[in-house]
Specification:
The structure holds 2 protein chains of 2 kinds. By secondary structure, chain A is mainly alpha-helical. Chain A has 15 helices and no strands. In chain A, helix 5 packs parallel to helix 10. Chain B has 13 helices and no strands. Chain B is mainly alpha-helical. The relative contact order of chain B is 0.15. The chains are: A mainly alpha, B mainly alpha. At the A-B interface, helix 6, helix 7, helix 13, helix 14 and helix 15 of A face helix 1, helix 6, helix 7, helix 11 and helix 12 of B.
Chain lengths: 346, 305
């Protein structure tokens, strides 16, 4: 019988229980891939990034773990073994060796004060890495908060806040660094005698002023990056939806906007690490870096310049290492960008 | 256009004024002073010195006097180098730094842009890989490492080039290489990525399809579009490089502005610090305005507002 097209009666066949075959079609065969998993999978395929990651991990092990059971310390001055070439022994050490004692070799030689150079280089990389990592975190926090507030508020707040960034960009940074390190000298010294702040002495005053300098000066780039991202994202529907549901500005920034530019944040932070290490080595070179006898790669290199003609390896080793660290972080950052932020590729 | 330039220049003046004010107060708030490090200065002599340079007056009075003088083009005398005005120090030191810095930027531009183009045109081939490896290493090596390596190899071991000072043209080679190294690597990478971007555009296919020669395709259509990011980078780079790099000037002992600036900061030579900061800030801000205008000339699609 032909059915009347205007007939409102439903076809009962449509409401029969689904057969097994139909059910199978709807089974999710694969777990949905989360943002992290997807990014990590892409990162793992990137050989260059993985090699750089391995290099970074290796350097970190040498810098943070090996010194704790290394037979020499970075400030120990061994009398009679000044200016040894790599893998050589002083007369006194040779005598001890003759007597059957085990003497650990100076793998990279010693400096002019008889300190084992290998451990100094390791401690130097530790300082450089700490500076790079801590500074990157500081910049991440300050920059993303500043940038997101500027972008989210918009209007004159935005204009004012971005002018501040411009001005910080325009003041010669060396001037601020030198002035700040002078200015912070006394307050930090006084603070370190207050109970509970003794750690300042261990870290070294200069290192802390370097961090403060980073916190005050170098977040401009990050703030601009975050601002441009958020300006784009804040027009999205989910932000309107969140606002309609009564979410506060802080919650929208934290939960919706910043989480959506996480890719950019990761990449910019990773690329910030080498540039912080760059700046630290430059400051150490100026003599504004970490306090003696604590070495950093920059201060090791600058100390070695005077003896360049006779002991060139004292310069080459820290110079090579600092370049290697910066190179690995740069390559890892590029890999992370390709993995987590594919839009930015090329 | 004229309105835009006027607006930008007005904003530039405000920025420079803010920078000058900030520097003035920051500098004076930091403990210590220009005459404290000198040995055997009796309190009387110190007072006399401070009175001579007006440092005994309250800070806001000093500030007003300084700003008035600065507006009339008088940046005062150096507190440490007796008998020299700040203007004479800047005009004698800046040309040295500017010459080396300007040449270095030229080298970076004329090496970096072709390298980037070649690398993009040979994407994925051996040439591309070699250039990319060199450029990636180039941005990872700090300038003091380059300086000392150059000095050790070319200067000390091979003895081809003189290491210290500025006399003949040979003295210029190493500082220029050292200064140009990082920007060259950076421009190469920038040029490569923007060239790749442009080569994939539809208008490139169109221009090839309508039978334009390779030369016209490349220089008129691809290069002109791809060079924009490099132009943006060039402005701040030029301002930064001509103002003198402290490290390069110290290692090769070149009497430039970068070294002068650092020594004035450590000596607390207030007037020199202020003069140099205002000079550098002006250079930086003006360079950014120039870049925006050049941008408009290179790319007529951009509207200045």
């Amino acid at each position: 019988m032909k059915e009347n097209p205007l007939n409102m009666q439903l076809d009962l066949d449509d409401f029969l229980p689904a057969s097994d075959e139909e059910k199978e079609n709807l089974v999710v065969m694969r777990d949905s891939v989360s943002f992290w998993k997807d990014g990590m999978r892409r990162l793992r395929k990137n050989k260059i990034a993985m090699v750089s990651l391995a290099v970074i991990v290796l350097i970190m092990i040498c810098a943070f773990i090996v010194p704790s059971f290394y037979p020499y310390t970075y400030e120990e001055q061994i009398k009679g073994s000044e200016n040894l070439a790599p893998m050589t022994y002083s007369a006194a050490e040779l005598e001890r060796k003759e007597a059957g004692e085990h003497v650990f070799p100076h793998i990279l030689g010693t400096d002019k004060m008889g300190r084992d150079y290998a451990i100094r280089v390791m401690m130097g990389s530790r300082v450089s890495l700490i500076v790079g990592l801590v500074a990157a975190v500081i910049i991440l926090v300050v920059g993303s908060v500043f940038g997101s507030i500027a972008a989210f508020c918009g209007g004159w707040v935005d204009i004012l806040m971005m002018r501040v960034v411009d001005i910080i960009y325009t003041i010669p940074d060396v001037l601020l660094i030198v002035l700040l390190s002078f200015a912070l000298k006394d307050p930090l010294e006084r603070l370190s005698t207050v109970p509970g702040f003794g750690w300042i002495q261990i870290l070294g005053r200069n290192l802390i002023s370097i961090f403060i300098v980073f916190a005050l000066l170098y977040w401009g780039g990050m703030a601009r990056m975050v601002r441009s991202q958020i300006l784009m994202l804040k027009e999205s529907e989910y932000v309107t939806a969140a606002r309609a549901l009564g979410a506060s500005a802080g919650r929208i920034i934290k939960k919706h906007l910043l989480t959506n530019c996480i890719g950019t944040l990761i990449v910019t932070t990773t690329l910030q690490i080498p540039s912080s290490i760059f700046t630290e080595s430059f400051l150490s070179f100026l003599g504004l870096g970490v306090a003696v006898p604590m070495p950093s790669l920059g201060s090791l290199a600058s100390d070695a310049i005077n003896g360049l003609n006779t002991y060139p390896y004292l310069l080459f080793i820290p110079a090579l290492l600092i370049s290697l660290i910066i190179l690995s972080f740069n390559l890892l950052g590029d890999g992370l960008r390709d993995a987590f932020d594919p839009k930015m590729k090329n | 256009m004229a309105k835009y330039i006027a607006k930008r220049l007005g904003m530039a003046v405000v920025t420079i004024w803010l920078v000058a004010t900030l520097t003035f107060f920051l500098m004076n708030l930091v403990p210590g002073g220009p005459f404290l490090s000198e040995k055997a200065v009796s309190p009387k002599a110190l007072e006399a010195l401070e009175a001579k340079y007006g440092l005994d007056k309250p800070l806001h009075e000093q500030y007003i006097t300084y700003m008035k003088d600065a507006l009339h083009g008088d940046f005062g005398d150096s507190l440490k180098q007796r008998g020299r005005t700040v203007s004479s120090i800047i005009t004698s030191k800046f040309p040295v730094s500017a010459k080396i810095g300007g040449l270095a930027v030229l080298v970076a531009f004329f090496v970096g842009v072709p390298l980037g183009c070649v690398s993009a045109l040979h994407r994925g081939k051996v040439t591309d890989n070699i250039i990319i490896v060199i450029a990636t290493c180039g941005i990872a090596v700090p300038s003091f490492v380059i300086c000392t390596l150059l000095m050790y190899t070319l200067g000390v071991k091979l003895g081809w080039l003189p290491t210290l000072g500025l006399g003949t043209w040979k003295h210029y080679i190493m500082p220029i290489i050292a200064l140009a190294f990082y920007p060259t690597a950076y421009i190469t990478r920038l040029m490569r990525s923007s060239m790749l971007d442009v080569l994939g555009q539809d208008y490139m296919r169109t221009s090839k399809a309508k039978g334009l020669s390779q030369f016209v395709c490349l220089f008129k259509h691809a290069l002109r579009n791809a060079i924009l990011p490099v132009v943006t980078y060039l402005g701040p780079l030029l301002a930064y490089t001509v103002s003198g790099s402290f490290i390069v000037e110290k290692i090769f002992s070149i009497p430039g502005l970068g070294r002068e600036f650092i020594s004035s900061i450590t000596n607390r030579d207030y007037t020199v610090i202020m003069g140099t900061t205002i000079f550098l800030a002006t250079l930086m801000v003006l360079m950014n305005v120039v870049v925006d205008i050049v941008y408009k000339l290179v790319d007529p699609r951009i509207k200045l507002k």
